[in-house]
Amino acid sequence: MSDLQFAQSLSRLGTESAFMVLARAQALAAEGHDIINLGIGQPDFRTPEHIVEAGIKALRDGHHGYTPANGLPALREAVAADLHRRHGVEVNPDCVVAVPGGKPTMFFAVMMFGEPGAEIMYPNPGFPIYESVIRYSGATPVPIALREENGFSFSAEEVLAQITPKTRLIIINSPANPTGGVTPKEEIDKLVAGLLDHPKVALMSDEIYSNMLYGGRKHISLLQYPEIRDRLIMLDGWSKTYAMTGWRLGYAVWPEACVPHVTRLCINDHSCVNAATQFAGIAALNGPQDAVREMVAQFDARRQVIVEGLNKLKGVTCTDAAGAFYAFQTSRAQA
Ligand code: PLP
Question: What are phi and psi of 241, to 5 degrees?
Fold first, then answer.
């Protein structure tokens, strides 16, 4: 027990329990146990060598200082070029803000819009940090039901029906953690069309798995809808695509009106992303993408083995994940 007087808000802050599992698995591995850790969402591949080399070179070249809070211009330009290549969209590098991983964008977006009396929607089942930080902000979390029969996509109709005058922000995530679900274009079209009647509602689209789709699917980015650019926060990053979870590098494309606010949040929180990591991030985006393709092909092969194997177990059913690297079971048939 402690006599310290913690802030009330801490009691509302949740966690991502996969980090507890990770710590336990690493402790057991350190004791010499042979561990396969399926607990946390990170590739078991090494960061491609040319990216590692770029990080080392940056340190050797003396990039040891602060960078601009929103990220090196060359990094933000590389992001804009990558988004043009992958999604065919024009992005102003000044609207790109680099942060240490995917998570800071969600934290900052929720802090920017969340407060007591506000409502924020989030996918359920979904990445646990969304609900945690919404509660922490004092806003009311409003779940968006994702159902197996819809391939774990949201229903745009349901999302739009849940909007109230208190709704400030809607969070969506496709391909999704933990279901592997991918939202079909028709549903996104409907959501965007419906949002035109709610111009004060912001949208955060977590596209961190945008490079991991299977069965010939192509990623639909919310950036492809110019009509909502003025309230869209599009989150993506290097962690999953380039097996760089430990480097801590992510970004979002923010609406112009949000950029000064998020930049101030960065300055208050972490100043800037580690400089060498940013150079590694530039090499990742500007360099060859073969390693990404090979890794995704491996995930696809494993996905097929795992899904088939799980479905053979009595009492277990598991849908074919369309994206990301998760297998998710909701139905519990009687064993
Ligand atoms: N968004 C989703 C949906 C995730 O699954 C994760 C990590 O698991 C993140 C964001 C955060 O990624 P990062 O490790 O870059 O903070």
Answer: -60, -40
Tokens of 43: 């590739």
The total number of structural domains that make up the chain: 1
- Let me know if residue 333 belongs to a domain: no
Domain assignment present for residue 53? The answer is: yes
Rounded CA separation 331/296 (Å): 27
Which residue owns the Cα nearest ligand 1 atom 5? 177
Output the domain CATH number for residue 148: 3.40.640.10
- Distance from Cα 226 to the centre of ligand 1, integer Å: 25
Using the mean position of ligand 1's atoms as its centre, give its distance from the Cα of residue 19 in Å. Answer: 12
Confidence of residue 39 (pLDDT cuts 50, 70, 90): confident
Parent domain of 139: 49-286
Percent of the chain with pLDDT over 70: 98
Give CA 208 to chain center in angstroms. 4
| pLDDT tens column, 41-74 | 788 899 999 999 999 999 999 999 999 999 999 9
Residue 161 included in any domain: yes
